[in-house]
Amino acid sequence: MNTKNKLKKIICIAVAVIALAAVLSSCAKPFAKVDMVRKSTESGAEIPQVQGFMGEDEINAKLSEIFTPYADLAYKAVSDSDGELQVIYNLEESENSSLFKPEYTLSMSIADGEKHNIDITEATISGASRVEYVSPSDISWLGSAKVITSTFDLRDMGIDIDLFQIGGNARQQFTVDLLVRVYEAFADGELDISDVAVGQDKDEVYRKAVKLGLIDVYSDPDGNVSDSMDYAAAMDWYTVQSMSFKMLECIERDVYGRQSESVTGGEFARMIEFFCGVYMTDYDSDSAYSWQDMCAVDFAGVAKKAKKSDTVIKRRDAAELIWKINQNAPSYKVKFNDKNLPQVEDSDSIWVRRVMNYYLMNYYGDSTLFAPMQKMTVLNALQNARYYVNSKYSDYQFANDYKNVKDYSNYDMVTLAGMIIDYFADRPDEERNAFEIKTVINDRDYNWFYSQQNTGEYSAVNCMPSIATMAAHWYNENSKATVQKMRATSDVTEGWTAFELRNGLDAYNVPYTVVDATLKNITDALDEGKIVLAQYSDRPFSQSGHCYVIYGYKKIGESVTFIINDSDSLSDRAIIFGRKRGNGDELEANFAMWSISRFVSDVTVIG
Question: pTM to 2 decimals?
């Protein structure tokens, strides 16, 4: 073959190859620049569609099938978020894309317009109209703006939640673990559990939850300890609201130092609003009553109209505010009227009598006292906000015959964590953990605690002989005093007064001084290494009082908690730390001073 023919043959082969390449390329590569547009579904949501691909009609049909379920849910969340959330689609060419095998990734995410982003799903688009994607295991949360924004809030606190992996009904283990992490994020460090005695055979989260009060610990008369924790148990409404209350209480006390501070009417109304939202009730009901209506009250507006928004309130003011909030919410169980209102021991206020009649506030103490002029502290306000909402929720359940009390999901618990974070969102960061912490505990390295139980004929009234006996052993490790011997220093067969108490101290050579019953006098005595014997009463004056030994205090900011020995305590908190019931109880000082000062004018200082 001559050179001319060879050249012609080579040219023909080259042309054929180029032609073949052109055919293959036209089958595989885009006609033009690949781009993305959006198409609205029947529900109003938008889904992505591509243009520029060969066979794009088939591709877009598959994309519609893939993204529509996600888009419908996401659209609901976006609509409920008042513009806070948005859906983002992104089209990117893959690294291994080539002329003959183009490949793109189309991804979907939901964001809040700032730095937060949750990847939802993605599809790979390649030549020959191929579309592939992996479906996430659970996307039901995608329809809830609250779950998504709560997840973003948790991420801001350094807590990462994988929403694709936590589907299903909420269990105590998940909830306790999440709330402990929230507390530690607020406290900027791990909770110290070195002093927690119970649960040594259990995990660290359990012991932290016990210390925070998320898990209740009990003891029987024989000293056997049990608790309310069942990691596999579903979360019921009572447990949810109890844990949320404890979280607010602990964060207010430990992180912001506000347990004993006064609150304004606006703050109190916000607390009520918070607990209304905690229940997250299933709204599918045939009843004429809706918990949504209960939560739809303009709480801030009611406080403002009552002229209490920015005013520090007392308990009588709180009663008025609660009643006015109550008037703005449906009455599920009863029709309110002012006939036959009860008489309250220490108040004739119409507001007080109304809230007492319908169980919308608690007594102050354990009987019929209301303490109308006592200031509303953060702790007492939280207690009453929860108390009011519990009462209304019970009415709601009664009206609906418990038909629509739902099972809580893990997504609900994420929402709860977000609600707690949001509750404190207006507090400047510099207010967190920015206060003095002072702890004074004048304990002994030997046992000096005495219970009045099983102390003979006068066990029921042996509280004063018991604290006198404690004082004797605190002062002198080798004291021979017992509760029975201390009782024998007097012929009185009823409860003792301060006169018999001090005679008993004299009998065992225990030095003491008598000072006015003020918070300063008590903390000054404790600062000097002494202990204080105090009588008190949170009951009507026609009933007897009680007493305890104050041997320490904790001061966090301006909030003070007494450390006490109570010879007849019903509290199980001391058991957490390996002590007997009543040994080392904690008592908020504002309440303690009210109950002491209304009963006696002085206290006895030992040492």
Answer: 0.89
| Cβ atoms of 489 and 504 closer than 8 Å | yes
193, 206 Cβ separation under 8 angstroms: no
Find tokens 């008042």 and name the residue. Answer: 82
The one-letter code for the residue type at 331 is S
Give the 3-state secondary structure of 347-415.
Answer: ECCHHHHHHHHCCCCCCCCCCCCCCCCCECEHHHHHHHHHHHHHHHHHHHHHHHCCCCCCCCEHHHHHH
The 10s digit of each residue's pLDDT in 140-182 is 899 999 999 999 999 999 999 999 999 889 999 999 999 999 9
Percent of residues, the chain, with pLDDT higher than 90: 67
**Helix, strand, or coil (residue 110):** strand
Q: Say if CB 27 and CB 127 are below 8 A apart.
A: yes
Q: How many CA atoms lie within 13 A of 324 on its CB side?
A: 20
Instruction: Tell me the C-alpha distance between 278 and 415, whole Å.
Output: 9
Give strand pairing partners of 314: 375
Q: What is the 3-state secondary structure (H, E, C) of 290-347?
A: CHHHHHCCCHHHHHHHCCCCCCECEHHHHHHHHHHHHHCCCCCCCCCCCCCCCCECCE
For residues 259 and 433, give the distance between their C-alpha atoms in angstroms, rounded to a whole number: 14
Looking at 253-257, 405-409, 453-457, 516-520, which range is the least confident one?
405-409
Residues 6+ apart with CB under 8 A from 480: 508
Q: Are 187 and 255 in contact (CB under 8 A)?
A: yes
**DSSP letters along 547-567, please?**
EEEEEEEEEETTEEEEEEE-T
In angstroms, what CA-CA distances link 281 with 191, 240, 285, 405, 579? Answer: 32, 12, 10, 6, 40
pLDDT at 27 (0 to 100): 47
User: Pick from 263, 259, 249, 252: which is nearest to 558 by CA?
Assistant: 259
In a 10 Å sphere around its CB, with 0-12 CB exposed, 13-18 middle and 19+ buried, how is residue 271 labelled? Answer: buried
